[in-house]
Amino acid sequence: METQILVTGGTGYIGSHTVVELIQAGYDPIILDNFSNSKRSVLEQIKKLTGKEPKLIEGDIRNEKVLDRVFQENKIEAVINFAGRKAVGESQVNPLLYFSINVEGSIVLLRKMKEYGIKRFVFSSSATVYGDPGYDCFTESTPLSPINNYGESKWMVEEVLRRLVQAEPDWKVAILRYFNPVGAHESGLIGEDPSGIPANLMPFVSQVAVGKREKLRIFGNDYPTRDGTGARDYIHVVDLALGHIAALEALNKNDGLITVNLGTGNNTTVLELVHAFEKASDKQIPYEIVERRPGDVAAYYTDPTLAKTLLNWEAQRDINKMCEDTWRWQQMNPQGYPED
Ligand code: NAD
Ligand code: UFG
Q1: In 166-196, which positions are buried (b, 16+ CB within 10 angstroms) versus exposed (e)?
Q2: For the chain, which terminus, N or C, has the lower number of CB atoms within 10 Å?
Q3: Does the CB atom of residue 337 touch ligand 2 within 6 A?
Q4: 219 lines ligand 2 (CB under 6 A)
Q5: pLDDT value at position 1?
Q6: Ligand 1 centre from 245 Cα, in Å?
Q7: Of residues 153, 183, 187, 171, the one with CA closest to residue 264
């Protein structure tokens, strides 16, 4: 029988790509999602892509009754927890929401897993836990110092996991710190579908290219980078999804806790990304330079060494491929997923 993996938040951006890769690797993903930031039609797209529609349970990760049902009705062997909220600005105005969903949600899930004897957990953390350490290449031992409530919420869950594994060493936990996920599946069938005005660079650029938005605002060109604009380690969402499968496999071999950065080890400035997107789409991206965005760090990227040695994983797709796949998804789905 295929190994059943519970994927919370499995209809979201990173979750849906991971579900596809799990199916293709021979796993049986079971999705728990409350559709607070995703659409049901993702499931049909996953079916088109893989030939299989994954089982779905609709509900909140904080709902113990729902979790009882999930764990009683299935033979789950591991949980990947993508469910959560991820907007830095929103976390500053609504901290309770962030600590409730991201922190309390993870704790309820872990408590229920323990009750049912399931002790394999993969957690979506973020490079945001490092804050602004004053240098730009982050290894897993770079000190943690989040600078907003979203980052704090990820740090808190990490801390819970570190203490849990210390007290109960038979848990197998992977903390994955993502750098900047972008791109879409190369089929153009699934991708990122932000609601409202995109806060992040790649979806905004893509909406400018397709004519949905007039121009990009570049937040500052006076950073100490190659061209003065902010630089990030963008990672293709399919590479990221494959990183989760590598992590599940690594957990089969190691007890305890592993903490790994998932990025490419390269960085791309805003202007470099704009030019790569222009090339991929054959469109001009009009832009203006405006003030720096408060809270932004100049530049950072991962040292990818540990991911290579511990997970035997390495990102394969470069910035051009990230832009090409984003553009294909944008063109095939100019309005994103259809409304439910
Ligand atoms: P997303 O919003 O597309 O996906 C999250 C999914 O979780 C959505 O389908 C949403 O409906 C669901 N969800 C939210 N709250 C829930 C709840 N209480 N119960 C059940 N389901 C719930 O986000 P994403 O980009 O796919 O991110 C996935 C995870 O990765 C998040 O935890 C996020 O914080 C983390 N992460 C994302 C990024 C990024 O830039 N996208 C970077 C680092 C870390
Ligand atoms: N940028 C612009 N114009 C825009 C949007 C972004 O110039 O309209 C610039 C930013 O200033 C930054 C770069 O593009 O230099 C990337 O910005 P994003 O908003 O795409 O990504 P961030 O690195 O700011 O944020 C991401 C995730 C957060 C996470 C953070 C830290 O979206 O959830 O990384 O890991 F907290």
Answers
A1: eeeeebbbbbbbbbbbbbbbeebbbbbbbee
A2: N
A3: no
A4: yes
A5: 74
A6: 18
A7: 183
3-class state of residue 257 by DSSP: strand
Contact call for residues 243 and 202 (beta carbons, < 8 A): no
Q: Which residues are catalytic?
A: 150
Token pair for 252: 């089969």
Ligand 1 neighbours (beta carbon < 6 A): 8-9, 11-15, 33-38, 60-62, 82-84, 86, 101, 105, 124, 126, 178, 181
**In 3-state terms, what secondary structure has residue 73?**
helix
Reduced to 3 states (helix: H, G, I; strand: E, B; else coil), residue 1 is coil
Helices (H) and strands (E) in the chain, counts: 12, 15
Task: Give dist(CA 43, CA 32) in Å, integer.
Answer: 12
CATH of 4-183+233-265, picked from 3.40.50.720, 3.30.450.40, 3.40.30.10, 3.60.21.10, is 3.40.50.720
Q: Which atom belonging to ligand 2 lies closest to the Cα atom of 86?
A: 33
Q: Is 232 in the pocket of ligand 2 (CB under 6 A)?
A: yes
Distance between CA 127 and CA 262 in Å, rounded? 9
Q: Any alpha helices (H) in 201-286, and if so which ranges?
A: 201-209, 237-253, 270-281
Q: Which atom of ligand 2 is nearest to the CA of 198?
A: 8
Residue 338: pLDDT band (50, 70, 90) is: confident
CB of 200 closer than 6 angstroms to any ligand 2 atom: yes
257-310: pLDDT as tens digits: 999 999 999 999 999 999 999 999 999 999 999 999 998 999 999 999 999 999
In ligand 2, which atom is closest to the CA atom of 231?
15
Which ligand has the minimum distance to the alpha carbon of residue 85?
A: 1
